[in-house]
Amino acid sequence: MGNLDVALKSAMSIDGAIGAALVDYTSGMTLGVAGGTGEIDLTVAAAGNTDVVRAKLRTIEMLKLDDEIEDILITLGSQYHLIRPLSNRTGKGLFLYLMVSKSRANLAMARHQLRAIEESLEL
Amino acid sequence: MSRVDKLPRRTPAGAGTLPPPRKLPPSLAGNPALPYPAIGQELSALRLQIPGVHGCVLGGVDGLLITHNLQNDASPDDLAALAATMFGLGRQVGFRLGQGDFQQSTVRNANGYLSVYAVSRQALLAVVGTDSINVARLHLHAPDTAARLADLLDGVTPTTS
Description:
The complex is a heterodimer. Chain A is α+β, with helices and mostly antiparallel strands. Chain A has helices at about 1-10, 40-60, 105-120; strands spanning about 15-25, 30-35, 70-75, 80-85, 95-100. Chain A has a 5-stranded antiparallel sheet with strand order 2-1-5-4-3, sandwiched between helices. Chain B is α+β, with helices and mostly antiparallel strands. Chain B has a domain at about 45-155: Dynein light chain 2a, cytoplasmic (Beta-Lactamase), CATH 3.30.450.30. Chain B has helices at about 35-50, 75-95, 135-155, and strands at about 55-60, 65-70, 105-110, 110-120, 125-130. Chain B has a 5-stranded antiparallel sheet with strand order 2-1-5-4-3. The interface of A and B includes residues 43, 44, 50, 51 and 54 of A.
């Protein structure tokens, strides 16, 4: 799982990163977490955002779009939450979850870096 | 003398060496003093909170059914017995590895889950779910439900049998 630790560590090195997790959306369980604070339990965030990903996947299916999610951005008052499903074969059913501080992060840069991390992640 | 006769045999323990019979607390099953409406509310709240939960079974560690809210045709009595079996296995693991009291055990099959949570020293909560259930969310919510159920069961005078 060295690769996973490296990926989570580089996700945490993104400017303004608060927490990162790799989540299995078939069960809502985390494969790994990094960062987080006393108030923010990333396993709770993972379980909750699993429902977000599932709802969007179901919507795409209902609309017969025959497409997939590249990423999901959720903007809060003080944070950005980025969800990025893994696209390679070994990462099927998983997504990367990243929380960044709105004031300290560059959204375009964070998205770009998260894509690079996702592409290099081989499980 | 055949080869079978040479095999080691267990010898029965002498009458004096047997441990004294254990005193078990009376079963919670069938106790009319339990707050069934409040228990039922907790069980339905858990089913509503997490999509994919077919129902919950509250059973005793003795394998007897206390109450349930199952919606499918699974037998609640069987599930209470299965829950106690899973508890027994978990408890033994806890003993052998020195890991303390049983908390939770989950079985995942091709088309669904059965999770068993410790409620109190006497009761267990079993939850049946579909395969698509968000099991991490279940693991986050069910222990809280179990703790509230423990409070409801606590203080109820056990039936003397």
